[in-house]
Amino acid sequence: MKQNKKRVDYSRWGYYFILPFFITYFIFSLIPLLDTIRFSFFEYFRSGIRQIGPNFVGLKNYQALLESDMLRYASNTMILWLLGFIPQIVVAMLLAVWFTDKRLKIKGLQFFKVVMYLPNLIMASAFAMMFFALFSTNGPVNSILLNLGWINQKIDFLGTPFGTRAMIAFMNFLMWFGNTAIILMAAILGINEEIFESAEMDGCTPLQKFFHITLPLIRPILAYTLITAIIGGLQMFDVPQILTNGQGSPNRTSMTLIMFLNSHLKSKNYGMAGALSVYLFIVSGILCYFVYKMLEEKDPTGTMREKAKQSRKKGVLTNAK
């Protein structure tokens, strides 16, 4: 007689392994998020040693923010992000295409990857302090320029809106371009080489290959890069906070939304801070949606995919001959 062997069901073990993550997310992320939304509808702040609230005020906090300088700080945040992100994505894309081009036969690729990624490992606070020391009025940059005779008087780099914004953008560029370049390099290396070979046989130029093959095929990674960059840009805080001592100087032209949020938290105004957090969440969601729709696949019928397959087959047959 055959003995019936008991079969062990392992399907539930997957749920056991992901359970700690969901418990951690529920306690430390979801509950605070819901609590922030709840506080945004309440008047809840501290006046001296006296605590006001929480008193339900509806949408009063949201209206008060619109009447404040929030839109000005949102404009500052967008300007700082664009000044840093546009050169970041351009340089990262150029480096990614360059390092993945097998015709150049670049040696020491891993070394260059490490060098590009190193600024990302430096704490933003340390990076900001270093630049503050370098470009201060009595810093080494001014001393070198004076000794070379290139300037007649010291330059106050942090004394003008353009100088402060340019320095913040430059620091963000240095910290993140290497990370973006490595992600794009991985995306380009994931493209089948046969597609490029077939395109070369059809007489495609390097620019045509880049715009008609590389960019469309790495669109999902570009969408990921843009979305994470938008979220990171809206959360810009540490570099301008340290560089301007939390004042957003000069004349609050480098004050970001998170610095504005932090000022409400420092004054214990949790109602306004919660409303501003909700605004940031909504804006992030809207921007990410537009980026996703802008970069989503524009080939619903599959015509382009079929052409790519035919081109690939043609290249294989040609090589076989």
TrEMBL record:
Region listing for Disordered, in residue ranges: 302-321
Residue span(s) of domain ABC transmembrane type-1: 74-291
UniProtKB keywords: Cell membrane, Membrane, Sugar transport, Transmembrane, Transmembrane helix, Transport
InterPro entries in the cross-refs: ABC_transporter_permease, MetI-like, MetI-like_sf
UniProt subcellular location: Cell membrane
Topology class, membrane: Multi-pass membrane protein
Protein family membership: Belongs to the binding-protein-dependent transport system permease family.
Lineage top rank: taxon: Bacteria
Cellular-component GO terms for this entry: plasma membrane
PROSITE patterns: ABC_TM1 (PS50928)
GO biological process: transmembrane transport
Span of the signal peptide: none
Protein name, as recorded: Multiple sugar transport system permease protein
Organism, scientific name: Globicatella sulfidifaciens DSM 15739
Transmembrane segments: 12-34, 78-99, 111-135, 166-191, 217-237, 270-292
Matching Pfam families: BPD_transp_1 (PF00528)
